[in-house]
Model the fold of this input.
Amino acid sequence: MAVFNHLLLFSCLVPLVLSSPFFPPTCYSKVLSMARESTQWAAHLKRAYETGYCMAHMPDLYLDVHNACVMYKMRTYISLIEELRQRRCAYTREVRKLGVTLRQLFIFMSEKCHGDLVFTSYDCAALER
Done:
């Protein structure tokens, strides 16, 4: 019976280990995926039925982590989300998730990954697409 349990445990763990990546995500890849997720989530919130009416006045969010203006753009967008508190949709889970994700991304870029990121451009107009 013990051999069967070990064999069962081994057969469950091997596919799990083989399916996971062999390298941990780097700070750069984490920032890149969070920026992509935030951009997609903001676009979804503007189209969603529940949040579309109060997110309609918000500017489109496009985050390019290689552009130095992205920090200013994130600060501005975070403050706009915090000002939504007077409106009803600010209390929805989706809007709060976007605000928290943007704050986390801002902290990652400014403090934790500061030396890993290289800004290749300083074009604020490129973020206003």
User: Anything to note?
Assistant: The mean pLDDT is 78.
